[in-house]
Specification:
single chain, about 375 residues, mainly alpha, Farnesyl Diphosphate Synthase, 19 helices, 4 strands, globular
């Protein structure tokens, strides 16, 4: 499988082994897919990626221990990367993006319906991959010695039929009424089970992403065409950008941090890391536009509230009327682009502030290897250059 993360970032973070294990799992998953959909999955997953989300999972794990990343966490990282690709597929369709990661996106190669169906397949399979580790989890929670665990794992190998055997303290077989697992073990899964933990966090992520995308889409130019009583709250200022950055990219990194650390106390660090990532991406787009002589105005055209846009609209509210126009003429585009570029200094200052908060959060978490978290922040901030 082609390397799907910039090798220099992986090496700097010392995550070569973990990425190799993750890539092997992704490749095995692709090879096992139905032949009718395999080519579409290859198109989506065989490309260059920053791969920061799984790296965040790994970094937060190693901030607390030097124990190797367990296999279950590699599965979790794979599920996160799969969900991330679902968001990319949908974004590419909505934004009419024909290229990503140096290759054509899915919908122009096939069609939009196919791309949507592929995204649904990926979501379903991500949950299925997590669910397939359930049998090991049941046995782990039963408190058996290693040899008994080995024998029990062999006994529950037929996962295709959904039969999972659990045991009581005396080692006797015990099945609940559904033929799956004892009531006592099922209750413990509800409280502390790793797979349930992962699945509920992935579900939280999907719901928050859906809400954020609906809010952002509702606030884009089309919202102005609705009846006044149905018009959405329009997003313009810095506080609005903070909401979008937190609930779009920020929540993805927040969930990754909790999944990697197995601790809810990592939420704020992950959230700040994701907001920093989101803002750096915004600023990099505008800086690239400057280097290209004003090109790359898709965000301006589509009414996307980037960090420079939020600062410009807050600084000069008279720009809001232009920002909401659809379509923009050439003069409108030039006016907005120039205004956004003029805010790059303030945008970088805001990113520095968020970076300082992330660093402070990493240092106050009280973990034994906080340098792992600081290196994640260190790798994100240069993305705005």
């Amino acid at each position: 499988m082609p390397t799907i993360a910039p090798i220099e970032v992986i090496r700097h973070l010392g995550r070569e082994k973990e990425v190799e294990r993750l890539e092997a799992r992704i490749e095995a998953w692709l090879n096992s897919a139905d032949p009718a959909i395999r080519a579409m999955l290859d198109q989506q997953f065989h490309g260059l990626s920053k791969f920061f989300r799984p790296l965040t999972v790994f970094g937060c794990h190693f901030s607390q221990t030097r124990e190797p990343v367990p296999d279950r966490m590699i599965v979790t990282a794979q599920a996160v990367e799969m969900i991330h690709n679902v968001t990319l597929i949908i974004d590419d369709i909505v934004d009419h993006s024909d290229e990503r990661r140096g290759k054509p996106t899915l919908h122009p190669v096939y069609d939009s319906l196919t791309a949507y169906m592929v995204s649904g397949f990926i979501v379903a399979d991500a949950y299925d991959l997590l669910a397939q580790t359930m049998s090991d989890e049941f046995i782990d929670l039963a408190g058996l010695d290693a040899e008994t665990q080995r024998r029990r794992r062999e006994a529950v190998a037929d996962r295709a039929h959904g039969i999972v055997e659990a045991v009581d303290r005396d080692g006797r077989s015990q099945l609940d009424q559904g033929g799956l697992v004892s009531a006592a073990v099922r209750q413990s899964l509800n409280n502390t089970g790793p797979v349930r933990f992962d699945m509920r966090l992935i579900s939280e992520l999907m719901k928050r992403l859906a809400v954020a995308e609906c809010v952002q889409w509702d606030s884009r130019k089309g919202g102005a065409l609705r009846p006044r009583e149905r018009r959405p709250r329009v997003l313009f200022g810095l506080a609005d950008w903070h909401y979008l950055a937190r609930e779009d990219t920020g929540c993805m990194f927040e969930i990754c941090a909790v999944l990697g650390a197995r601790s809810q106390k990592f939420r704020r660090f992950g959230r700040l890391l994701g907001m920093l990532y989101h803002g750096c991406d915004d600023v990099a787009d505008v800086k690239q536009s400057v280097r290209l002589g004003g090109g790359g105005d898709e965000d301006v055209r589509d009414g996307i509230l980037t960090l420079p846009a939020a600062l410009a609209l807050q600084h000069d509210p008279s720009l809001i009327e232009i920002f909401r126009k659809d379509p923009l003429d050439e003069n409108d585009t030039h006016t907005l682009t120039a205004a956004f570029q003029a805010q790059l200094g303030r945008a970088d200052a805001e990113l520095d502030r968020i970076q300082a908060q992330a660093i402070d959060e990493a240092e106050t978490l009280g973990v034994p290897y906080a340098d792992e978290l600081l290196r994640l922040v260190e790798q994100v901030r240069p993305l705005s250059v």
